[in-house]
Amino acid sequence: MDDRLFRNAMGKFATGVTVITTELDGEAHGMTANAFMSVSLNPKLVVISIGERAKMLEKIKESGKFAVNILAAEQQEVSMLFAGQLKEKREAEFGRIKDMPVIKEALANIVCNVHSTQVAGDHTLFIGEVQEIVLREGTPLTFFEGKYGQLAEEQLV
């Protein structure tokens, strides 16, 4: 099967949008990702998937920690910034939770220590043990078939 068919099939799965953040040598780093899920309640574990060509891969390996920031519907520009999709160069603004850089006003900030890693094909799965969570009310930013979207208000009832 060709790569485009596989990518198109994966695009049929609607997801939320996250920005993964970490800090290395006092500098905050972030990347947009939608490969995120919960793994375990006891202990509280989540997993993220980072491509072997992503700059973030080595940064998380070295720092041993990361935060998952689940974006709100009005944060599409934030997602585009960390995905390298904005034409103009802008500096990102970060908040801090447990001495980790996080995205301000995200629906959820989930701060993790790396629990374990698993190489899977051309990605590394980072299983993170959750250290802190901050939640906010709002509607999630979604991604489907390569396009941003959001849930309709009637779906939220």
Question: Can you characterise this structure?
Answer:
One of its GO terms (molecular function) is monooxygenase activity. By secondary structure, the protein is α+β, with helices and mostly antiparallel strands. The protein has a single domain, classed as Electron Transport, Fmn-binding Protein, Chain A (Pnp Oxidase, Chain A), CATH 2.30.110. It has helices at 3-11, 56-63, 76-82, and strands spanning 15-16, 18-24, 27-33, 36-40, 45-51, 65-70, 94-97, 100-103, 108-120, 123-135, 141-144, 147-150. A 7-stranded antiparallel β-sheet has the order 3-2-6-9-10-5-4. The chain has a 3-stranded antiparallel β-sheet with strand order 1-11-12, with no helix packed on it. The chain has a two-stranded antiparallel ribbon with strand order 7-8. The longest helix is centred in the N-terminal third of the chain and has 9 residues, at 3-11.
Q: How many domains comprise the coordinates?
A: 1
Multimeric organization: single chain
Order of helices and strands: HEEEEEHEHEEEEEE
Which range best describes the helical content: under 10%, 10-25%, 25-40%, 40-55%, 55-70% or over 70%? 10-25%
Q: How much is the radius of gyration in Å?
A: 15 Å
Q: For this structure, what is the CATH class?
A: Mainly Beta
- Total helical elements: 3
The amount of beta strand, in percent, is over 45%
Morphology call? globular
The CATH homologous superfamily: Electron Transport, Fmn-binding Protein, Chain A
Spatial ordering of strands, largest sheet: 3-2-6-9-10-5-4
| Structural class assignment | alpha+beta
In CATH, the topology is named Pnp Oxidase, Chain A
Distance between the termini: 40 Å
